[in-house]
Amino acid sequence: MLEVRGLGIRDLVRDVSFEIGAGERVGLIGESGSGKSLTALSVMGLLPEELTASGSIRLDGRELLGVSEKDMSRLRGNELAMVFQEPMTALNPAMRVGRQVAEPIRIHGTHREPRKAAEELLDSVGLPGTSRAYPHQLSGGQRQRVVLAIALANNPKLLICDEPTTALDVTVQAQILGLIRTRLAERSALLFITHDLAVVAEVCERVLVMLDGELVEAGTTREVLTAPKHEYTRELLAASDLEARR
């Protein structure tokens, strides 16, 4: 589904290569500044103007690097979708949430009744009757559910989640992770970016470990979290709650 080969972004990301199969859930872990988010933004075609990606990024066989913004706009919100860490920066504070969920459906023409589809999506993520609410009227966890509903509106081939539960308390985090698992099912591939190994253990089948712009380890979740090969991965594991559970 997604094939990244030799991805480079100045000296910030160097020679990164990985694949994600259809319906596969892959975690990308590493400390802040390791290049995780830049890798995700390059897939979405959302890098800052001063940065340019090199190498190859193919979605379902189609090369994404170098395509026009018009073509990327057709893909984003349809075949590609992303959930960011802070929902308030992803939502329009002056627009009712039902309209925001309906917008990608209306733009891409994937449903005859966008408003009805939006209400069904909000209901599916546990927010019935909220379509006329504004973002500021919802809690942080509820806003993140809205963002998730928007991302899943058109059943994307690939969903990227960039630290979507970091700002949430443990109970709400568990609810959001549960929604991601159940709503994705086998329909979408997932790239889940986080520094939290416990989250990776719960959600992902494979793990990629990133350090200083490079991938330093990759394997199944069980392999990486129970028998890490790279010293940095061992340090991450030692610093996490998982170490105490082993």
UniProtKB/TrEMBL annotation:
Gene Ontology MF terms in the entry: ATP binding
Entry similarity comment: Belongs to the ABC transporter superfamily.
Classification via Pfam families: ABC_tran (PF00005)
InterPro entries to which the protein is assigned, alphabetical: AAA+_ATPase, ABC_Ni/Peptide_Import, ABC_transporter-like_ATP-bd, ABC_transporter-like_CS, P-loop_NTPase
Subcellular localization, as worded in the UniProt entry: Cell membrane
Superkingdom of origin: Bacteria
Main location: membrane
Membrane topology of this protein: Peripheral membrane protein
Keywords, comma-separated and alphabetical: ATP-binding, Cell inner membrane, Cell membrane, Membrane, Nucleotide-binding, Translocase, Transport
Name this protein carries in UniProt: ABC transporter ATP-binding protein
UniProt-listed CDD domains: ABC_NikE_OppD_transporters
Organism in which the protein naturally occurs: Amycolatopsis samaneae
Annotated ABC transporter domain residues: 2-237
